[in-house]
Amino acid sequence: MLVVGSGGAGMSAAIAASEAGARVLVATKSALGASNTARAQGGIQAAVGDDDSVESHYEDTLAAGHMDARPELVRALTEGGPGAIGWLSEIGVRFSRDGERLRLLPCGGASRKRLLQAGERTGPEMVTALRAAVRAAPVELAERSRLVDLDPTARGWRATLVGKRNGETRSVEAAAVVLAAGGGLRGEADRRGIGSTNHPDATPEVLRLALELGAEAREIESWQQHPTGSVWPEALAGYALPETTRSYGATLHARDGERFVDEMAPRDVVSQAIEDVVAAGRGVAAPTGATGVWLDTAAIDRRHGAGFTAERLAYVHKRYGKAGVDITRERVLVYPVLHYRNGGLAIDRDGATTVPGLFAAGEISGGVHGSNRLMGNSLLDTVVFGRRAGDAAARVAA
Ligand SMILES: Cc1cc2nc3c(=O)[nH]c(=O)nc-3n(C[C@H](O)[C@H](O)[C@H](O)COP(=O)(O)OP(=O)(O)OC[C@H]3O[C@@H](n4cnc5c(N)ncnc54)[C@H](O)[C@@H]3O)c2cc1C
């Protein structure tokens, strides 16, 4: 069977399919693991806290998605949370702990502390562990190979791959295909000339191929903005300060200093509030002419004590430091940037699309988050549905 893409969903699917006994080929546009998954800093949600429950995670997810998600998919996502964390730990992801206990942080739209992190590098840590597991499995790799065509055959699928370096075309036969090529939002942002957090490979051609094959979609035009894209300093324009910045106490302010939104509300609410404040002429103009609002990052150390930001947000602290801004003393300017495709290909609990033999997992799929995603639920989605899709596709391929 063929897996397209090697972010969290593709690599989870490949490992599960291989464990289920399938012969697996992973075709991916760049090097193995190059993906949006590798950019994720914030963390992953799962109901593992003593005061938490799968039911509570389920309700928060449905509510944040404006009740548009498919309940059975949200059920599978949230029930799969604790198991996904256990599995990631087994393959080598080192989640942050306070003493013996897993560290759990609050995050926008969640009624409990539910966000787990591997330092500030949850995505890169996941990719490192998944890549090692893929390489240790009997999985064939076609790196720097772009899927450009997919045709049904009597026995499954014929995929056409094009080599990135040499432009050579290769044809591959597969009984089942898992599409894990992400949401493709970078392509959309470039087309509209707006900022995006996405990897340059995040283009929507695979999504388009599936739609042309007749796969049904849900909430496909529903996009999420990350509320705190950096506006200034210019060197960091478009970089998204992780939501944990607000979890730790950074506050949002209009030009007059007034706070105008609950910083821990779901992302769509916070993003809309920022846009409204700027549209009302209460934003702050950067020397580039771009406008944003203040994110008072210095509030974090005021709340937790000196040194907290440098330790818990070391990457952000260093990155801004290099650009000449000490976020423990100065405020930064932020405005929403395009971040995530909420919907995508309609799937069932096993990642099966409406086209027989064609599976989808991760950001390319729809119905798991409805029309707004809770932070940390996407990394979980990639592992839970990646593994389910890989396992189910392996059964078709058997
Ligand atoms: C900056 C940033 C921070 C984020 N932070 C968080 C966070 O803290 N928590 C959270 O839950 N979510 C976060 N997200 C969202 C989350 O990381 C992604 O939604 C998720 O990782 C998507 O995983 P995926 O496997 O579905 O797709 P991706 O990780 O995007 O992988 C897609 C793969 O498909 C490949 N591909 C694309 N087209 C083709 C093609 N034609 N042929 C072959 N291969 C192809 C790509 O090269 C890539 O390997 C963040 C996203 C970004 C951009």
Question: What would you note in describing this structure?
Answer:
The chain has 13 helices and 20 strands. It is of the alpha/beta class and 398 residues long. It has 2 domains: 2-183 and 342-397, FAD/NAD(P)-binding domain (3-Layer(bba) Sandwich); 225-338, Flavocytochrome C3, Chain A, domain 1 (Alpha-Beta Complex). The strands form 6 sheets. A 5-stranded parallel beta sheet has the order 7-2-1-11-19, with helices on both faces. Strands 13, 14, 15, 16 and 17 form a 5-stranded antiparallel beta sheet that branches. α1 (8-19) links the parallel β1 and β2. α1 (8-19) runs parallel beside α5. The protein is globular. It starts with a strand and ends with a helix. The model has no long low-confidence stretch (mean pLDDT 95). It binds flavin-adenine dinucleotide (FAD). Flavin-adenine dinucleotide binds next to α1, α5, β8, α7 and α13.
- What is the strand content? 15-25%
Count of individual helical segments: 13
Mean pLDDT: 95
Low-confidence stretches are none
Neighbour order of strands in the largest sheet: 7-2-1-11-19
Report how far apart the termini are. 9 Å
What would CATH call the architecture of the largest domain? 3-Layer(bba) Sandwich
Number of domains: 2
CATH topology of the largest domain: FAD/NAD(P)-binding domain
**Broad structural category:** alpha/beta
Could you say which overall geometry the principal axes of the C-alpha atoms support? Answer: globular
